[in-house]
Amino acid sequence: MPLRPTTSSDLLIDGELRPGSGGTFDVINPATEQVIGQAANATADDMDAAIAAARKAFDNTNWSRDHAFRARCLRQLRDALLAHTDELRELTVAEVGCPVFLTHGPQLVGPVTDLGYFADLAETYEWRRDLGEAKPMGIPNRREIRSEAAGVVGAITPWNFPHQINFAKIGPALAAGCTVVLKAAPDTPWCAALVGKVIAEETDFPAGVINIVTGDDHSLGALLSTDPRVDIVSFTGSTATGRAVMADAAPTLKKVFLELGGKSAFLVLDDADLNAACAMAAFSVVTHAGQGCAITTRLVVPREKLAEATEITRNALAGLRADDPTKPGTVCGPVISARQRDRVESYIRLALEEGGTLETGGDRPERPGYFVSPTLVSGLDNSSRVAREEIFGPVLVILPHDGDQDAIDIANDSPYGLSGAVWGADPDRLDAVVDGVRTGTMGVNGGIWYSADVPFGGYKQSGIGREMGVAGFEEYLETKAVARPA
Ligand code: NAD
């Protein structure tokens, strides 16, 4: 059965595909600026029905206790989606504007395949642990720790890596035994809606266990944060919205899990292969037009090599021009929307106002689509706004350092602490830098940490909690201590 919606997609609520009560809204291809179809526009009533369905499914079914059944449903979903890979690839590139090469990894096949990792965890996790005997107040007791599903999860996701982020939430949440309402980003509704269609038509997930809501109104997300029937809000997006989610969740004291922004540093030590390091820094910052929260956007090089590093990076970026994301060789596609391009361009203007120099880029390629040329900014220090604020575009700021400790200090002189990279030759010095930088992930000499079993998340204002890996699964669990007389 073909997946592509001809006129519009549907919501998935209580096991049924249904139109949005608010009609539809346009889906736009960011590489062409063309309207490519419509998505269901949910209202507050639709969200209310989705939350009610998730609550009912959690409270009134055996879903949270049947680990084997959950594993089977997750594998069924993985296999059904993989059977639709070609259609999903075409649609994902059209809706997200992501380079097609990324759909072989984190933009599609990676996170779909990783559903199997969470299915395995549901089956193999130690749900009950015997703590043995103890004698509190002299009375012998046998104790046990039980892990249980935390309840109804409200998952709120952004547009930059929709499949990766949607599945990094619904995979572990469902494997843990929770029920879910997924609220997709307004710019990428189809990536979520088509998963809903596959769930409804090709899997055995019980009604209400997973509900998928699309809409053009951001306030739909706030309904999840405030609703007392929701136990956890799992949010990925900007730090500003993360603050709003946390504040909105406070009155009902629900658990909040946040994956937020970043301004990660790429540190080059004085014994590093400068050519290889700068080429990698350039490649990283233009990948998916820089729209990745963990992308390294500050290149920090030895002061005595600043001119050389600037030249290498400028040349590398100039060779990585923004292009059609459907071409297999494209690394830098468009940004998601006209609004996002305006935001990126305002930061490029700000770089000049702050006294920076544009070494390359800063312009718009002459073609339709929301493209921004790969851009290198020099001549600023780490106190400038373009070195401190998340731009979410293909813009790299190059900064000098005066030795390893100074490089660490510059990396840490940021409100964020999401990711980072270090390049060098001496293992002890590399290790000391990894120890010193306060971030959730670090790549050494090009090391790639992204994988289903690796926890991902941030220090400081980059977030609270970890996604993926066992730690990501445990975010969706509660702990119950049980004691009986021995
Ligand atoms: P955003 O914060 O504007 O929106 C994210 C989601 O939150 C969307 O679904 C949106 O509709 C919803 N939302 C908006 N206002 C809300 C509110 N008051 N309450 C509840 N939900 C609300 O972010 P974006 O523009 O979609 O995505 C880009 C941002 O996301 C960047 O800052 C980027 O760094 C961040 N991001 C972080 C990670 C990570 O894992 N740390 C991953 C991807 C993106």
Automatic annotation (TrEMBL):
The UniProt entry, under InterPro entries, shows: Ald_DH/histidinol_DH (IPR016161), Ald_DH_C (IPR016163), Ald_DH_CS_GLU (IPR029510), Ald_DH_N (IPR016162), Aldehyde_dehydrogenase_Rv0768 (IPR026460), Aldehyde_DH_dom (IPR015590)
In terms of Pfam families, this protein maps to:
Aldedh
Organism per entry = Gordonia spumicola
Q: Which residues form a coiled coil?
A: none
User: What name does the UniProt record give this protein?
Assistant: Aldehyde dehydrogenase
Oxidoreductase listed as a keyword: yes
Provide the transmembrane region boundaries.
none
Report a single Gene Ontology molecular function: oxidoreductase activity, acting on the aldehyde or oxo group of donors, NAD or NADP as acceptor
Keyword annotations of the record = Oxidoreductase
Task: Identify the Gene3D superfamilies for this entry.
Answer: Aldehyde Dehydrogenase, Chain A, domain 1 (3.40.605.10), Aldehyde Dehydrogenase, Chain A, domain 2 (3.40.309.10)
Q: Which family does it belong to?
A: Belongs to the aldehyde dehydrogenase family.
Report the active site residues. Answer: 259
